[in-house]
C-alpha cells in the first residue's frame, strides 16, 4: 500500500530574524574632560604651572565632594567621581611658521595632565565650566552624557527583550503569509558586545573648546538624550 504524498506532514520552514530595538532616556550624569597644559622653554616652570593649576582644581573638587564616614563618595554628592592623571612632560624642537628653527639650542617643553570629573548636579557643572574657563593653563575638551550603572544595566536588559519581541512579531507575520499556523523559537543568539566600552549611542551636545562654552554668570546645562540600541539573532520553525 502506497502512502498519499499529499497527506505527509510538511517539514518546518526555518525563519531567521534579526530583532532590533532602541530605548531612549535622559542622561543622569555628565563627565567633564579637563586638560591642564603649559608649554615653554623652561621645563621646570611649565611643570610648576601645571602642578599648581591641578592642585588648585583638586582642592576645589575636594570641597565639593560629599563623602561617607568610610571615605567613599556619597551617592548624593553633586560630584560622584573624579580622577587626575599623573604629570606628563614632552620635549620637541622649536620651529617657526616657515619650518625654521630660530634657536637650535632651545627646546620646547610641554607639561600636561588631565582631569575627569563626573557630575550629578548639572547646575554645579555649569558653574564649574565658567570658573574653569577663566583659569590659566586649563582647557575644557567637552561634556559626555552618561547613565548610572543601575540604569545602564536596566536598559541593557530592556532593549534585549524588546529586540526579541520584535523578532517574534516579524516571524509570526512571515508565517501567516506562508500559511503556517505555529511558530516556535528554537535558537537565540545574543550579542556579546552589547555594551562596548565607550560605544553607547549619544545625542548629547558636544563641546570641543573653552570658547565653545562661553563665559558668563553661569551656564544652564540640560541633560542630553541617550539612545541605546540592541540586536538579537533568532531562529524559528514555522509549521
UniProtKB/TrEMBL annotation:
<dbReference type="InterPro" id="IPR007497">
    <property type="entry name" value="SIMPL/DUF541"/>
</dbReference>
<protein>
    <recommendedName>
        <fullName>SIMPL domain-containing protein</fullName>
    </recommendedName>
</protein>
<dbReference type="GO" id="GO:0006974">
    <property type="term" value="P:DNA damage response"/>
</dbReference>
<dbReference type="Pfam" id="PF04402">
    <property type="entry name" value="SIMPL"/>
</dbReference>
<dbReference type="InterPro" id="IPR052022">
    <property type="entry name" value="26kDa_periplasmic_antigen"/>
</dbReference>
Amino acid at each position: 500500500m502506497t502512502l498519499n504524498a499529499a497527506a505527509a506532514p510538511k517539514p518546518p520552514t526555518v525563519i531567521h530574524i534579526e530583532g532590533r530595538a532602541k530605548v531612549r532616556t535622559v542622561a543622569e550624569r555628565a563627565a567633564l574632560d579637563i586638560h591642564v597644559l603649559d608649554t615653554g622653554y623652561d621645563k621646570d616652570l611649565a611643570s610648576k604651572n601645571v602642578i599648581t593649576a591641578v592642585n588648585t582644581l583638586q582642592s576645589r573638587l575636594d570641597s565639593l565632594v560629599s563623602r561617607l564616614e568610610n571615605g567613599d563618595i556619597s551617592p548624593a554628592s553633586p560630584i560622584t567621581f573624579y580622577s587626575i592623571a599623573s604629570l606628563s612632560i614632552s620635549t620637541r624642537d622649536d620651529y617657526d611658521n616657515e619650518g625654521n628653527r630660530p634657536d637650535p639650542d632651545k627646546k620646547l617643553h610641554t607639561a600636561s595632565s588631565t582631569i575627569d570629573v563626573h557630575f550629578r548636579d548639572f547646575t554645579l557643572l555649569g558653574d564649574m565650566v565658567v570658573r574653569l574657563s577663566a583659569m590659566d593653563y586649563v582647557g575644557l575638551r567637552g561634556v559626555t552624557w552618561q547613565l548610572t550603572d543601575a540604569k545602564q544595566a536596566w536598559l541593557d536588559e530592556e532593549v534585549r527583550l524588546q529586540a526579541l519581541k520584535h523578532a517574534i512579531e516579524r516571524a509570526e507575520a512571515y508565517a501567516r503569509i506562508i500559511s503556517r499556523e505555529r511558530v516556535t523559537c528554537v535558537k537565540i543568539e545574543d550579542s556579546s558586545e552589547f555594551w562596548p566600552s565607550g560605544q553607547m549611542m549619544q545625542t548629547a551636545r558636544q563641546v570641543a573648546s573653552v570658547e565653545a562654552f562661553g563665559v558668563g554668570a553661569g551656564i544652564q546645562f540640560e541633560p542630553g538624550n541617550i539612545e541605546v540600541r540592541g540586536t538579537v539573532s533568532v531562529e524559528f520553525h514555522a509549521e
